[in-house]
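The methods section describes the discrete structure representation at length, but only in general terms. What matters is that the chain and its backbone geometry are given together, residue for residue. Nothing conveys this as quickly as seeing an actual entry. For illustration, here is how one protein appears when written out as sequence plus structure tokens:
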Amino acid sequence: MNTAAPITVDVVSDVMCPWCYIGKRRLEAALKSVPQLDVDVRWHPFQLDATLPKEGKDRQQYLSDKFGGKANADAFYSRIKDAGMEEGIDFAFQDIKLSPNTLDCHRLVLWSRSDNVQNDVVERLFKAYFLDGEDLTNSETLVRISEEAGMQSDLVEQLLETETDLDKTEAQVAKAHESGITGVPCFIIDGRFVLAGAERAETIAAALLHAEETRSNPDASDPD
């Protein structure tokens, strides 16, 4: 019986990043194509724009400031919408009213790992933002998502009113930047191989197989 530790896939991501949603779909497709592999997916925080205020910023104003006008923003997101449709994601960018500061979302993702529902929570956050146009700065939205994912929503509600793990989350975001990650999604496979960007499913699958084939001693304990 194989008792080797699973291959880890550490995904550095931001829930306001549409390419990260696309990357999640492609990772899922890759995992389905290599069912013989034991893989542990772990989500880590990144902020595309840490300057956004806690309450977020009007979406149209944000896009105008970032792209210099609606026409430029529409052209930019048109390519993303096409890529999303290929992965079964019907982005509803027109329904997004607020560009959020995502620190509280990342805190929720952090807490969800202990309940083993990280993937579910990340999926629900993406859906809430990109498909339903919900306000991710609203604690009620995050509490509802935690409840739907099977977490202790009453505890989440209490924690969101505090600064619990805020420093830890900000430190993890800073660590990602310091390690050279400038864009997301970023997939770190088995702690050894890095795929930057929303790579195709076959590319991710090939990297997973390569990681499995090149593990010198899968049973060895983590040196860290």
Notes: The radius of gyration is 18 Å. The mean pLDDT is 94. Residues 58 and 98 are 5 Å apart (CA to CA). The chain has nine helices and six strands.
